[in-house]
Structures are given as structure tokens and as C-alpha cells.
Amino acid sequence: MSYYIPLFKPNNQKEEVVPPRSNFE
Fold first, then answer.
1. Residue 21 in 3-state DSSP?
2. In this structure, are residues 2 and 19 in contact, taking their beta carbons and an 8 Å threshold?
């Protein structure tokens, strides 16, 4: 749930926007 959130708020979590699949896989 914290992988598509940064897509909407990249200003708050731009670090999570880069490794969104790293946490998934």
C-alpha cells in the first residue's frame, strides 16, 4: 500500500518512489 502512495505524493516520499518493487519482490 506504500508503493502507489508515493505516486500521488512524490514530494513526501520520493525515496519510496524509486524502490517500489524492491519491497514487493
1. coil
2. no
Chain mean position to CA 15: 7
Range of the domain at 2: 1-25
| Secondary structure (3-state) at 7 | helix
Report the number of distinct structural domains present in the chain. Answer: 1
**Backbone phi, psi, residue 5, to 5°:** -70, -45
Cβ atoms of 13 and 6 closer than 8 Å: yes
What letter does residue 9 receive in the DSSP assignment? Answer: -
Task: For the chain, 25 residues long, give each residue's pLDDT as a single digit of tens.
Answer: 555 555 666 565 555 556 666 555 5
